[in-house]
Amino acid sequence: MNTATQNSPSRTETLKARKTHLSGLLKLMGSRWGKNTAIQSLTANAIKAELSLIDQQLKHRS
Question: What domain of life does the native source organism fall in (predicted)?
Fold first, then answer.
C-alpha cells in the first residue's frame, strides 16, 4: 500500500507553483523574442491556455 509522504506538496501548492513557472516563461519569451514566428505564437498561446486552466482549477478549489 502506498502512503503519502508528509513532505509532499498539496495539489493547490503544485498548481500555484506551476502557474508561477508558466508566467515566468511567458515573461521570458516576451522579453527575448523580438519578432514572433508561428511556432513561438503557438507556444505562447498554449502556455496562456494552460494558465487559464490552472486559474479555473484554483477557483474551483477555493
Answer: Bacteria
